[in-house]
Structure formats: structure tokens, C-alpha cells
Amino acid sequence: MAKISIRNLNLFYKNFQALKNINLDVTENEILGIIGPANSGKSSLLRAINRLIELDGATITGEILLDGKNIMELPINDLRRRIGLIFAIPIVLPGSIYKNLTYGPKLHKKLSRRELDDIVYRALNAANLWDEVKDRLKDSAATLSGGQQQRLCIARTLAMEPEVIMMDEPCSGLDPISTAKIEATMLELKKRYTFILVTNNTKQAARVADKTAFFLSGELIEIDRTEKLFTSPREKRTNDYISGRFG
Question: Is the pLDDT reported for residue 190 higher than 70?
Fold first, then answer.
């Protein structure tokens, strides 16, 4: 089943066209990897799905469907709860680890302390962070390492009970150990969530993605099962990119 369907999507920043007639489906409970060089439209696609492009002054044609419904017909707060976006640089909120995780849920409904405690535990446990911070919940989130902060951002997203989690270069500034923990978290969580992972690291896409899409200059050049795309791509441009001939 397609969780997200994108049909004839074009995105413009004034006179610059960032995405050109994009058509693709994201299947439920899969990790879709998106690769390509800088300025290929990868991040613009995530911002379009999350409707952040409305803050950028961009315009689109075509449509993006979530469970068959046009995202433009959904209340923006509902859309962003259902589709979380995690950026390359972890952005923690001021205050404690506990407050980072409970801020969003408390905005949406009245919850008891016991319910909040349960949300914190489940979110941190799912993000493979509970054992590392369970005795530090009152500490400032800023005291965590970079890798821990990124997993806290994942946990904060999970606390909102999303359906889709989008990640824009989530491991770009992290060491190999932190990267491995985040990848393990994604592989575990895809049983319950759908992921879209933008990465400049082709090896990362090969490790975790079920399908991979190659973007170049705003165009979707090729999308296929990850193993097939990396071993026998149809397009020469795809092969040149994954072989390191450009990018």
C-alpha cells in the first residue's frame, strides 16, 4: 500500500525550478532512501511533503497524497504531526530532556503525569536512548552528545505518534558509532513507521533503504529496490553517481 503518492510534482522558487515532474510512491513500513548530489532537489522534496515550502515562498503544481488524500486538504498541524521531519543538525528545545519529549504531546491534549512518563519512556526506548539517559531526564538536553541529541530528536518525533518519519541527512555530522545506532533505530522502527531518508552517503542508503531513488538537478532519474539500483542500475547517470564519477 502506498503511504505517500507523489504525482506530477513541480516545485518553483520564483524563477528556479527545484523539482521537475516527480512521480513516486512510498510504501507503508519501508525505508525509502533518496540520494543525489547537492542541489538535486532532495531536501525540497521533504519540505514539500511537510508543507514547509509555504514558509519558503515556493509554489508547487501536481499533488502529494497521504493515504490517498491531498495534503493541501489536511490541517497543517495534523499533517506535521503525522509526518515528522528530522534535520541534519539536531535541534533540541531549551530545558530538560523530559520537557523536550513532553512539550508536543501537552500542546495537543491534556495528559496526566503518569501518561507523560509513559510517553517519555516509550519514545526514548524506541529511539534506543532510554538506557543512556534514564537517570538524566531532568538534565538539559543541550548536555547530550551530538549523536544522543539526534536520537532525542527522533524520540521527540515518536512522542507525537507520527505515521511517517522523514530524515534529512540525520548522520552528516556524527561519528560512525552514533551513525550505526541511528541506523539500527530506523531498521527497528520501520516495523511501525514509514521512513524517507535523504542521504549523501550512498553506503548508508545501501545499508538501510528498502528502495532508493536517485535525484539529479531536480529530476527523479531512477527508483528501484536498493540492491538492484546499486548493482544493476538502468540509467548511466545513476551508475556514474554511485560509482563516484561525479557528485
Answer: yes
